[in-house]
Specification:
Elements: E1 5-9, E2 13-17, H1 28-34, E3 39-43, H2 61-75, E4 82-86, H3 88-98, E5 104-108, H4 119-137, H5 141-145, H6 148-154, H7 167-179, H8 181-189, E6 204-209, H9 219-226, E7 231-235, H10 247-257
Parallel strand pairs: 2-3, 2-4, 4-5, 5-6, 6-7
Antiparallel strand pairs: 1-3
Helix pairs in contact: 1-10, 2-3, 4-7, 4-8
């Protein structure tokens, strides 16, 4: 069984990779703004959504995930697409870029650029708490997802405008987060900063939400030092998962990052 994916739209191919604990439906809010100009491939990372479990064999998780995504693209006959990702997916996108698999790379709050030694333990605590919370409140999720106040509770650390998440997506996200528990633990068992060079001629865009509560926007300063060729964009008022906070702005960044 290979990675689960969806494919829609027309134009240059753009691969979208969700963040840790999420699923390919994370991009739903921006799809309609992208598909008139891009063929969009949304992927469930291993251990997430409908994809098979994440098995690293002791290797670095980002490397393993990038290889599996590259294998999917090869099987689909897609050569050097534009690639974008959020959080862990941003680190995977950068890994694909450094390995020569991407025509361009866009990272939305990409993992791998901690500005403090406390950041990874903090992020681990946040994701662990979300997993436990999801398990505890699971019987109440349909009710919580049905109100703006309930969605605010479910998404408190991840987004700034939870009222813009649909009830259906909220229910699916909670179930997906709980199901991704093994992958979350595996990723945090072997975190590593991103330090690989991106080949010349591969445009890189890094965008960060100013209200990111998981990977703070000061991480962008670290990314600037490691990726001096990159274009940096601020996402005002957006949280760690900005796609529902400001779909129009995120779609604009993705289109510009993948060739305008």
């Amino acid at each position: 069984m290979g990675l689960a994916y969806d494919r829609a739209g027309s134009g240059p191919p753009l691969v979208l990779i969700h963040g840790l604990g999420h699923r390919r439906q994370a991009w739903t809010a921006v799809l309609g703004l992208l598909t008139p100009q891009r063929e969009v491939i949304t992927v469930d990372m291993p251990g997430h959504g409908q994809s098979p479990p994440l098995e690293t064999g002791g290797r670095h998780p980002v490397e393993v995930i990038a290889e599996q995504v590259a294998g999917l693209l090869s099987g689909l006959g897609i050569d050097r697409p534009h690639v974008a990702g959020n959080s862990l997916g941003g680190a995977v996108a950068l890994g694909l870029g450094s390995a020569g698999y991407a025509a361009s790379v866009t990272g939305l709050s990409p993992a791998g650029f901690p500005a403090s030694r406390y950041e990874i333990p903090y992020a681990r605590a946040v994701f662990t708490a979300y997993t436990v919370f999801g398990q505890v409140v699971r019987p109440l999720v349909p009710r919580l997802a049905g109100s703006a106040r309930g969605r605010r509770l479910l998404y408190s650390a991840m987004v700034t405008r939870p009222g813009q998440v649909t009830p259906e997506q909220a229910q699916g996200d909670v179930a997906g987060f709980v199901a991704a528990g093994h992958a979350i633990r595996t990723v945090f068992a072997g975190p590593a900063p991103f330090s690989e060079p991106i080949p010349d001629g591969v445009p890189v865009t890094i965008a960060w939400g100013t209200a990111d509560r998981v990977l703070p926007s000061r991480d962008a300063d670290v990314a600037r030092r490691r990726l001096p060729q990159a274009r940096f964009v601020s996402l005002p008022g957006c949280g760690h998962v900005p796609m529902t906070d400001d779909p129009e702005l995120v779609a604009k960044v993705l289109l510009e990052g993948s060739g305008g």
